[in-house]
Amino acid sequence: MVEMLKIGFIGAGTTGTALAVRLSQKGYPVLAVSSRSLVSAKRLAELVTDCKAYESAQEVADISDLVFITTPDDIIARIAQETQWHAGQSVVHCSGAHSVDILEPARQLGANVGSFHPLQTFAGVHQAIENLPGSAFALEAEEPLLSMLKELASILDGNWAELKPGDKALYHAAAVFVSNYLVTLVRLALDLWQDFGVPPEEATQALLPLLKGTVNNIENIGLPNCLTGPVARGDLGTISKHLDVLKNRNSRVLSTYKELGLQAIPIALAKGNIDEKRAEELETLLKM
């Protein structure tokens, strides 16, 4: 069982801190942490019962049965290469973009290697700790480590998606669409509101109920039925007005609007509110 293993963290950023705190709260023995900054390691250790901060990654590896590498992505390979791992040990990174093959040096030394990526947005330590429970986790590992990682996902009240070699980049790109580019779309909307004199703070408060309502519809109604708006209705007149006003403002915003509209057409067709003829008319309008 995982709770009998000594757990260590190499990296004391938001992801590492959230995992360490939540696992400790569930009774898992998180005993060691290191970071590029000893101050950062001590800060994490103070949040976790019986956890000690160490100056080097090697010290964490020497005393831990299960090691999470929660450093920035560009450091993972160096940690894997420079650390002396031991046979039977489990070494897991938490990168969303890298596959498990980046841990090949640890595998060659006899360690079990895997990837455990929380599909969640972590804007800061407090938000990370709060957001982690209930998240999905992307897992990449072989048995027996795979079952261990599934157990950890379950104890964090989450579910998991098991990835195959080569899936990671596509998985991470999908996450960027849902999280990072959603933020980008909100910024585009805020910029438009400023054109009629509403500052970003007020515009954000005005748009948040709409944003939350959309997420609620996705969760409770699902695709394609949660799609609303002029494309879903086949409203050529409204879309034409949007295109006209955006032409006079910003060519980048216009091209983004058109591309997103084109991507929405198949969803509108699947919903059943428009037919093929209206879909073709929408496509023609958005490609002008």
Jot down its keywords:
single chain; 288 residues; alpha/beta; Rossmann fold; 2 domains; eight-stranded mixed sheet; 14 helices; 55% helix; elongated
How many distinct domains? Answer: 2
Give me the number of helical elements: 14
CATH topology of the largest domain: the name is Rossmann fold
The largest sheet is:
8 strands, mixed
Q: Please, what is the average pLDDT? A: 94
**Low-pLDDT sequence parts:** none
Rg, alpha carbons: 23 Å
CATH superfamily label of the largest domain: NAD(P)-binding Rossmann-like Domain
Order of helices and strands: EHEHEHEHEHEHEHEHHHHHHH
Short description:
The chain has about 290 residues and is an alpha/beta fold. About 55% of the residues lie in helices and about 15% in strands.
What secondary-structure arrangement, pairings included, does this model have?
Elements: E1 7-10, H1 14-25, E2 30-34, H2 38-46, E3 52-54, H3 57-63, E4 66-69, H4 73-82, E5 90-93, H5 104-108, E6 112-119, H6 125-131, E7 136-141, H7 145-155, E8 159-162, H8 168-178, H9 180-195, H10 200-220, H11 230-233, H12 236-247, H13 251-271, H14 276-286
Parallel strand pairs: 1-2, 1-4, 2-3, 4-5, 5-6, 7-8
Antiparallel strand pairs: 6-7
Helix pairs in contact: 1-6, 9-10, 12-14, 13-14
Commentary on this structure:
There is one protein chain. This protein is α/β, with parallel strands linked by helices and 288 residues long. The chain folds into two domains: 2-167, Rossmann fold, CATH 3.40.50.720; 178-286. Helices cover 55% and strands 13% of the residues. It is built from 14 helices and eight strands. It has helices at 14-25, 38-46, 57-63, 73-82, 104-108, 125-131, 145-155, 168-178, 180-195, 200-220, 230-233, 236-247, 251-271, 276-286; strands at 7-10, 30-34, 52-54, 66-69, 90-93, 112-119, 136-141, 159-162. The chain has an eight-stranded mixed beta sheet with strand order 3-2-1-4-5-6-7-8, with helices on both faces. Helix 12 runs parallel beside helix 14. The chain is elongated and about 65 Å long.
